[in-house]
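Input (Sigma-54 dependent transcriptional regulator):
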Amino acid sequence: MTNILIVDDEKEIGTFLSHLFTSKGYRVTVVNSGNNFSAIDFNKQCFHAAMIDLKLPDIDGLSLLKHLKKLQPRCKAIIMTGYSTIKTAVDAIKLGASDYIEKPFDDIDLLEKQVDNLLNSNVTSTQQHIKDLASKVGLIVGQNEKMNQLIQTAYKVAKKNVNVLIEGETGTGKEVLSRFIHQASQRSDESFIGVNCGAISESLLESELFGHEKGAFTGATQPRKGLFEIASKGTLFLDEIAEASHSIQVKLLRVLETREFMRVGSGSILRTDTRLVAATNENLQEAIQQKKFREDLFYRLNVVHLNIPPLRDRKEDIPLLIDYCLRWNPNIDISFSDNAIEVLQNYDWPGNIRELSNFITRIDTLADSNHTVFTADDLPFSDNGVATSVPVKKIKQFNTKNQESQLESYLQKWINEILTAFEQKDEINLEEVLAQVKQLELQVGKAFILETLKDTLGNRKEAAKRLQITMRKLRYLLNEKSFCLEDSGTKSVH
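Output:
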């Protein structure tokens, strides 16, 4: 028979839960305090599930949870909590609780279903489900204990309609984790929409989030729905939330508090049921101290706090991440020896997974087609795992002088042709001359862009920064001017 333990100081709740689950055929034990809990002989009584209230008169529920998991680690636990203590309930999940439920119990059917699902769930099938969802969004579970605990926590809280704040260094995979949360939630069939708060101006971000009415500002020729409206039943991911202006922060706070907002230029109130996941690579606590971020907004966002460890703290997962990059990119046809993998594991990867991915792309881009297996001697790292400027063996080195020579040769040929045309005494086709000038612009621009993309390992954002042009301008030059990047040996990444 299935044994259930109820720990709650409110005797009415204990009696109610006892009747509810006894009628379903379970054997129920009810205790009302920490002292009563300590009196249980856990050597003689084995519990399959426990429902523990977080607040008891003589002890807190987290302490009881720790003690229970130590005595009977296979016992599945549900934490009972009020809304004000949801953050503590999430801490309980990190300590081994399987789930939490809010009091008072407004939906008895949901409560029964939650307990039944918990009792009938299989650890193996749950783990497999997590792996399947992670694989679907490109999240590598790996072997690292912190990362595994993080994913377990994310999976458990995903089904709750609470806001999530993800912190982590640039390149650790915050958006991938947010997609995992969406896929593991009850909203997985609805929209997942992401926006980078630091990449859009304040006025455009306001319109992007809340929408606008026709004529609200110059260029607003048609009414437009905002992301809070479009993703009303789904998940809205706000990346780099620390970059949002104070004005936007105030408006976000109102949406989170009331679930209400107005389009730009409208007086009508709209409602949203969006589940918000925010991410930042900054320390928001420090941003609050520096008056850059609103403290009240922080607490609204920080209902569930997830911190992704940097790659240097999960080096045991580097072989899996490399294997993922090699398997899922059909254009990459290289491999690494065991000693090369060891060297890559010793490097700190300050750019995290994004840097690792770009590194592999670069190695593949520059690799000699006759050598596709890289050893430790072929990698640009010293013995202590520090990146060096030493040329990599088995990699085509782009000769800068040769590139300059090619550009110089082209310019000299162009000048000679133009001067020859200028010295002609007969009729001159000016349209043809002007076309040659445009061709010069194209070739010179191409040379500068390709050289910069090579220096930045194909990173368009960094290339645009170095060229002192906008990403929009770079995209125009790459797309409209039809630069043949592949022919020049450079693969660009966004």
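The two ends are 57 Å apart (CA to CA).
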